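Q: Two folds, back to back.
A: First:
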Amino acid sequence: MYWPPELVTEFVKLMPGKLKAAGLGEVGITPGETSNWYRFGTWGYVEALLNDENALQELDLITSHGFYGGYYGRWFGEHKSAGIDRLREKRPELHAWVTSTSWSNMDAYNIKEMHGNIYTAKVNAIIPWAGIQRPPHWVGGDPNPGSAFTVSEDGNYTIRPGYYFYKQITRAGQLSMAVAQASAMDSEIAVIAFASNGTNNPDAFIVTNIDMKEQKVKVFLKGTNATVFEAFRTTKLPDATDIDKIDEKYVSLGEYKVEDGGIVLTAPAGSVTTFFAK
């Protein structure tokens, strides 16, 4: 079904009353899901909401899929915050959630896509595409066959590489922590950082290397009092032909001391390394 911007806006206004009448008044309203943030921001949905004050005030959460398509054409979809930014100009308190994003080949690119959603699209939460899969239930086959778990028809399940990469980011970014500023002077290195923000969770950061070769990286740290970090790593070679092959599964790398304002690490090709303040 095609949902033009005008229809989405009408439903944003219609549904609060319907939900309240059904005893579901605490359920919030979203604009649904475009397939990526580029479409949300450029296909007219934001303008329709901004041009209708009643709809804008009924909106509780900004949502979209967060898939990335970097080549111009029908399926182009960059990580872009323009639509989110414009809505937040009028409603600064609005949060934005990714309601589905690719597992890629269950590799470091999966975490790079999350990096783009966090730092470029400026989202507050990410829900990946179908973390638990039952392949026979997809008509015509699953178009995005990665997952954290696959359940077979006999009731058994398989823990897949996606689980270990997902663990690298979800153990670091916990409830009520804050996204911290992070940057890297190499487009094949992505750094994600989370501040404790008054929680019991430690400051943490993640270094992702999507390069075909290992890279030596120095991460300069500011705003944390920690002098020692504990590290864990998951690795899958970028040229792996078997989608379920994995080289390291959240292995402990021991402790790293902060020296001269930072930590030096060697990041293998296709690796994601997570550091937790001690």
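A: Second:
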Amino acid sequence: MRYCLRDQTRRKQTMRYKLLLLDIDGTLRPGSCEQIPKENAAAVRAVQKAGVKIAIATGRGRTGVGKGLLRDLKPDYWVCAGGAQLVDAKGNDLALHRLTAEEMYALVDFFEDYELPLRFTFHDANYAYIDFAEFDRREKAKNLYNNIVDGEDQDHHLVEMPFGCFGFLPQEQAAQFQEKYGYLGLQFLYSYPGSDGCDIMQKGVNKGAGLCELAGLAGLTPEECVAIGDGDNDTAMLAAAGMGIAMANGSANAKAAADRTGPDAEPHGVADLCRELWPEAF
């Protein structure tokens, strides 16, 4: 009887979490895999079937999540472009935070001056405005395939303004940008210390703000959310969630922001967490 009561108590504790937000790269998809492991896909589907809503929270724009990457997983929501784009299951935008013309032109001018790779996220693709060849090389080396196209004509913003931006630059050069354009309030969010790749976000836009905005749209509170991530760009999300879990392979900053550390992403750490947090789903 005591064990039944313990199981019931645990079920109530876990089922109070009604939304699970998952980072892709380094979390749902280990670095050695081109797709998310089938074990992760099956476990997340089981949790979803048990009544928990699933959101993919990624620095990628929705257009950058290629077919097959998530196998047959069908999320209820998306927090994309680092929190700048919220999308429902049918692909409709729920919220969109576009860069201003002043912000975009400042970035293009700076990256051109230093000959640094820069791309922008639009609805149809990620357009590399500077050094498409370098993006293509790095994407293939890391099995990312973010739907990046050659945008060196630098004219797609005439169709629509972008809502995401990513560049490669040493962190000291990000500080140089802030010296010149700090009044714009743009943030350079590096995934890991020592990395030269970063999401470039408007002030107040990040995965944590995206979590809070999505929870409100879904009629939930952040306390009812579980967030799982691994990088520095996940820290705001991990801190905002009712339960934030950093993968064992995650950065020190991610682990500091989280409530606890989970298993390594390899070989299928997310599946292990799903079974631990929602045992009644299996």
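Q: And?
A: Residues 2-96+206-281 form a domain with the Rossmann fold fold (CATH 3.40.50.1000).
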